[in-house]
Design brief:
Helix 19 runs antiparallel to helix 20. The strands form four sheets. Strands 4-3-2-1-8 form a five-stranded antiparallel β-sheet, with helices on both faces. Strands 11, 12, 13, 14 and 15 form a five-stranded mixed β-sheet that branches. The chain is 59% helix and 8% strand. The chain starts with 6 loop residues before the first strand and ends with a helix. With 796 residues, it is α+β, with helices and mostly antiparallel strands. The protein folds into four domains: 124 residues, Arc Repressor Mutant, subunit A; 174 residues, ABC-type transport auxiliary lipoprotein component (Rossmann fold, 3-Layer(aba) Sandwich), CATH 3.40.50.10610; 181 residues, Tetratricopeptide repeat domain (Serine Threonine Protein Phosphatase 5, Tetratricopeptide repeat, Alpha Horseshoe); 201 residues, Alpha Horseshoe (Serine Threonine Protein Phosphatase 5, Tetratricopeptide repeat).
Length: 796
């Protein structure tokens, strides 16, 4: 854009220099992209006039087509940079249907004002200009995207370098002194273990964790994750408990392609503690900078970490505004107890080694030491959820949410998103939080894990879920969760080749977990690959955390084929294995799946007994829902309705309960009182998300497409064969979504009944024969099987 270099603009505490594309707040540089700067300049120059979206697009992007969404994103970023809030100052106002208006007075300053701005900018640039980067040709090539911080799906990934580059001041520099190195969005920083010279073991893990927590508050820094560190140690032949210090740290730094290494040390000098922090260029080995702090008491060490980290972030180039916004002192962001911080750190390390059961005691111990440690509750909830303990996950994330005033912004996003997605179950609210989270912390992978893992599947958007899984994989390629999420959502969408590719890529990275074995089994099942199914079963042998899942999966396959007697044996084995590991909720979920098979296949007595067994083991949303379905199908409408009432009262916001569980239970109750029209009406709220994967199908492998299944049942009861056939055909067209649920075997039988009802005898006979072929080895006394045979005989 053409600008007058002798004019600058001033509004509130801000000043803009159009010639140099600099935005200052109280003399501090504010990071904005060039296009965002131009957008703001148009609004500022037009004062309080309304500027339409079309005018903005034409002025800022005169030679290219850009969608309105791009403009909206720049407006959003500008509001963040200016500090717009609903309660406070508003600089940019949206006028629906008209455009945008700059809402505060603007002062135009010429000549003398320009000199003042230039002088201020010069002072702000002193550090950058003193330590300018080496010529471009001397710099190494950009690094590949790094792995990112913390466990399983919650590591600390923070972006480096973009802020100063955005305002044309060059790449950010790591610290000061000799050989500064430019960082970009692909560069990463490795935080080594502290060298503890005090003899007090509490410092062995706590200080490094504290340093990482503080650095993770920055939206621009990008830390090497614990998973990536542990993976590298394995390649080096080192045990997982190896201290990442000295030569080990430097080798990890080189192997991971990291730009800079941060090494800390703590020692006693008399009665005082002296802390040192050194940054090293991983590419050259040169020392870049040193920080030092001295405190009188152990209790002051965390405050020293806060000060040292703050100094580091300033020298990296973060603006004063960003530091002020994202700089919670360590004792407030996590815990004031060094012992609790150490236990928390050990839990994260155990999680990075994919030992779920081993992590829980560490987080529990951290909470014993500090009952107000919000992030320890959050990770405890995450671990319980991953292990299949839904109610315990809900309980702990609720406690974390109540303490969310004691965390950093990044951690608050995590707690809020997981609370709304897990505890409240409001997936639309969780989606909004995750999108803002990803916008604020673009190198954090966890919002993408949540979006791909349980938010978009519940909202019936598998394409978006797949997209988010790929985004997360780009940020954190070492995280198993993204390979599973990409594979599962591709399976749901019927793209089996993409699922196979995801498993292949995970195998190539030596990533192994029970959830990937289950996915491997499901893919082989859909492809009719018996050998592939057996390979997955073999992979789980001898692994306590895998054997119960795989026994349940084998039980599913047998039940799908109507071999219910054999399925019961394996199901009881899965329940017993889960109980042996102390996971009563997972055992209850296995039990309720077995009860549902009995109910759908016509064994009412066994269904009631199975539901009672499950409820006796544990109660959570999924177990209660499964028990309600089983009770309703077995003729106990009163219990089904009572469980439905409990779910509604306890979880009024839950997306799966509102749009799947309750409509299905109400439809079953209506069908039992011979009211098919009432059942169809009850299922209307499920329509927007009925092709999705509700919570039960994601965590317990049952419940997907049940609204469609029971709508088909209702149309059959109403003698509407064509309408029923349409519903059952949906089930067959999306069988990947029902994977793991043997109820999907009944879709073909329902379609046969629909054809017969509509007078299409030929298609009905073919469909009956196809179902009976699937069940050729089924238990002969199954009521559904006997009924299907009798119906086919009548058509002959």
């Amino acid at each position: 854009m053409n600008t007058d270099p002798k004019v600058v603009y001033e509004f509130g505490p801000f000043r803009m220099d159009p010639d140099k594309q600099v935005l200052l707040r109280d003399g501090q540089l504010i990071a904005v992209t060039p296009k965002a700067f131009e957008t703001l300049l148009v609004l500022v120059r037009r004062g309080r006039e309304v500027v339409s979206k079309e005018e903005l697009l034409k002025e800022v992007w005169p030679d290219s087509f850009v969608e309105e969404a791009n403009l909206s994103q720049h407006i959003f970023k500008l509001r963040k940079a200016l500090g717009d809030t609903l309660e406070g100052e508003r600089y940019i106002v949206t006028l629906p249907g008209r455009g945008y208006r700059f809402a505060v007075p603007v002062r135009t300053i010429t000549e003398g004002g320009e000199v003042l701005i230039a002088q201020m900018r010069s002072r702000a640039q002193i550090v950058i200009e003193e330590h300018a980067p080496q010529p471009v040709e001397t710099q190494p090539a950009a690094l590949p995207p790094p792995a990112h911080a913390k466990p399983k799906w919650r590591k600390w990934l923070l972006r480096a370098g973009a802020a100063a580059a955005m305002v044309g001041l060059g790449a950010l520099l790591l610290l000061r002194h000799r050989q500064p190195i430019p960082l970009n969005a692909q560069d990463s920083v490795l935080v080594a273990d502290f060298n503890n010279l005090t003899g007090d073991p509490v410092f062995d893990h706590a200080l490094r964790q504290g340093l990482e927590v503080q650095l993770q508050q920055s939206p621009y820094l990008n830390l090497v994750s614990e998973d990536r560190i542990q993976q590298t140690l394995r390649l080096m032949g080192q045990p997982p408990e190896t201290q990442v210090t000295g030569q080990v740290a430097r080798e990890v730094c080189v192997r991971t392609g990291t730009a800079a290494l941060l090494e800390g040390a703590i020692q006693n000098v008399g009665a005082r503690y002296v802390l040192n922090l050194r940054s090293t260029n991983c590419r050259t080995g040169d020392v870049i900078d040193r920080e030092q702090a001295e405190v009188a008491r152990k209790e002051e060490v965390l405050e020293a970490i806060t000060r040292m980290t703050r100094g580091f972030r300033k020298r990296v180039g973060e603006s004063g505004a960003t530091l002020q916004k994202h700089d919670v002192p360590l004792a407030e962001a996590t815990t004031a107890s060094i012992d609790a911080l150490k236990a928390y750190s050990l839990g994260l390390q155990a999680e990075a080694n994919q030992t779920e059961d081993a992590t829980i005691p560490f987080f529990k111990h951290a909470l014993e030491l500090d009952p107000k440690f919000a992030m320890a509750y959050a990770y405890l909830g995450l671990e319980y959820g991953s292990a299949g303990s839904s109610e315990l996950a809900t309980e702990n994330i609720r406690k974390a949410y109540e303490l969310a005033n004691r965390v950093s912004d990044n951690e608050r996003f995590f707690i809020s998103a997981y609370y709304h997605g897990r505890a409240a179950g409001n997936q639309e609210k969780a989606r909004q939080i995750c999108e803002e989270w990803a916008e604020t912390y673009p190198r954090e992978y966890t919002p993408h894990a949540f979006l791909a893992g349980f938010i978009y599947p519940a909202l019936a958007n598998f394409d978006k879920a797949t997209e988010e899984a790929r985004k997360g994989m780009e940020i954190a390629p070492e995280q198993w969760i993204f390979y599973r999420e990409l594979g599962v959502n591709s399976l749901y969408a019927g793209r089996l080749n993409d699922t196979e590719e995801a498993l292949h890529n995970a195998s190539g990275r030596k990533i192994e977990t029970v959830k990937l074995l289950v996915l491997q089994y499901d893919l082989a099942f859909l492809k009719g690959d018996r050998e592939g199914m057996q390979q997955a079963v073999k992979g789980a042998q001898g692994k306590p955390d895998s054997m119960d899942w795989m026994a349940d999966r084998q039980a599913f396959f047998l039940a799908y084929a109507g071999r219910l007697q054999e399925a019961r044996v394996l199901s009881r084995q899965a329940i017993a294995l889960a109980q042996q590991q102390g996971n009563r909720e997972r055992a209850a979920q296995f039990a309720i799946r077995s009860a549902l098979w009995e109910a759908f296949f016509g064994n009412a007595r066994e269904a009631k007994q199975g539901a009672a067994t499950a409820l006796g083991l544990a109660s959570n949303r999924e177990v209660d829902y499964g028990a309600a379905v089983a009770a309703g199908l077995a003729g106990d409408s009163a219990q089904a309705q009572a469980l439905a009432d409990h779910l509604w009262i306890a979880f009024p916001e839950d997306t799966s309960i509102r749009f799947s569980y309750l409509p299905v239970i109400h439809a079953i109750v209506a069908l039992r009182r011979n009211d098919p029209a009432g059942a169809i009406h009850a299922l209307e709220p499920a329509i927007p998300y009925e092709l999705g994967a509700p919570r039960g199908s994601v965590t317990c492998f049952f419940g997907a497409l049940y609204p469609i299944l029971f709508r088909g049942e209702a149309y059959l009861a109403a003698h509407k064969g064509l309408e029923a056939a349409r519903e059952y055909q949906k089930l067959l067209d999306h069988r990947g979504i029902m994977i793991g649920d043997p109820v999907s075997a009944l879709a073909g039988y329902g379609l046969a009944q629909s054809y017969a009802l509509s007078g299409d005898a030929s298609n009905a006979r073919n469909q009956y024969k196809e179902f009976l072929t699937l069940w050729k080895d089924a238990d002969p006394d199954l009521p559904v099987l006997q009924k299907a045979r009798a119906e086919l005989t009548r058509l002959q």
